[in-house]
Automatic annotation (TrEMBL):
Entry-linked Pfam families: Bac_luciferase (PF00296)
GO molecular function terms listed in the Swiss-Prot or TrEMBL record: monooxygenase activity; oxidoreductase activity, acting on paired donors, with incorporation or reduction of molecular oxygen
Organism: Streptomyces indicus
Biased composition (Basic and acidic residues): 359-373
Protein name: Alkanesulfonate monooxygenase
Amino acid sequence: MPVEFLGIAATNDGSETTPRSGGAFDKEYTLRLGRAHEDHGWDRVLFAYGSGSPDPAPAAAYLASHLDRLQILLAHRPNVSYPTFAAKTFATLDRISDGRLTVHFITGGNDHEQGREGDTLTKDERYARTREYIRIVKKIWTTHEPFDHEGEHYRFHDFVSDVFPVQQPRPNVSFGGSSEAAYGAGGAEADIYCLWGEPLAKTAEQIERVKAAAKAAGRTDVPRIQVAFRPIIAPTEELAWEKAHRTVGAIRERRESGLVRHHRGQAPENAGSQRLLAIAEAGERYDRALWTPTAAATGGAGNSNALVGTPETVAQALLDYYDLGVDILSARGYDLLGDAIDFGRHVIPIVREEVAKRDAEREAKRAGEHAAGTDRTLTAVNG
Ligand SMILES: Cc1cc2nc3c(=O)[nH]c(=O)nc-3n(C[C@H](O)[C@H](O)[C@H](O)COP(=O)(O)O)c2cc1C
């Protein structure tokens, strides 16, 4: 299977290491960053969701209407809109983008952040609501007759949408989370299951959990797996490690200065971040190039484990994840624009070439086995 690359869509140039230079929605930067991804070999970009951040749906529509190929992964929190409304927004966006939309459903890992927009459910309750929400959205995307819904969280009558997605039967559903409730909901409903980058062994464990949850939900297929990293690359190993230490220094400095808004209280509530902190506590370096101090310095804030080294080293590290069964590689630097260009120029081509080689070898092996099987059958019939 060809591998896919997910980058980041951002509406301004701020990051964990750098304060933003202007407002939260910088129209020119949004387009420049999207175009850099499209021009440098990326498949898709993620528009994230935060309570106070610019609304990602219109920002995604703006980007899609200015670019031809780049696909959109739109993060959406069920608590902020009714599913009938959201399903129409997504279908309209899939029309605007000529079928380039995937929706990433976010359950929300932090009660305080959820409360900022009026969500009072507990995390496990939120996962049950997300599951119901995804089912409704899928049904609206694919149902041409009015229908009623009587669920635990939503009740409505006689609804039918007049706008349908370009993608048939429907756009893909993406999902993230590392708690039991997350595996259950995402295993049942997701086409793409997203994980934050962890050591290979821990990632393998999570892939198994997702597969088991899909099976338990009665599925015969499994979600495609996506894993996210923060690559730090440079022309030599030595320069890459210097850059990594500079990066973590800048993250710490910015957090200590109090300029970065983080959630009240110290310990993260979401299992994904707790896992990242436990992994960082147990060691700084794992496998070929995984480095955890960037995760420790941000309190395990989302995609935060780095892959450090030359483009060749980082590409080989990513290929280790491909060999583990990962289909989509997600990457984001700390200088969003410059790093998207560098990674696209120097890392993506190596990974794509190696994946093509591995796939061709696998195909040749399969064809050989098939031919041998046919030979044996013929010998048996003739003999
Ligand atoms: C790739 C990816 C992207 C995510 N994007 C967002 C986001 O934009 N906004 C957000 O609030 N949470 C985001 N999340 C968080 C999860 O959707 C989820 O709410 C949280 O991790 C649940 O916690 P759990 O690990 O305890 O199940 C993202 C997670 C992943 C894996």
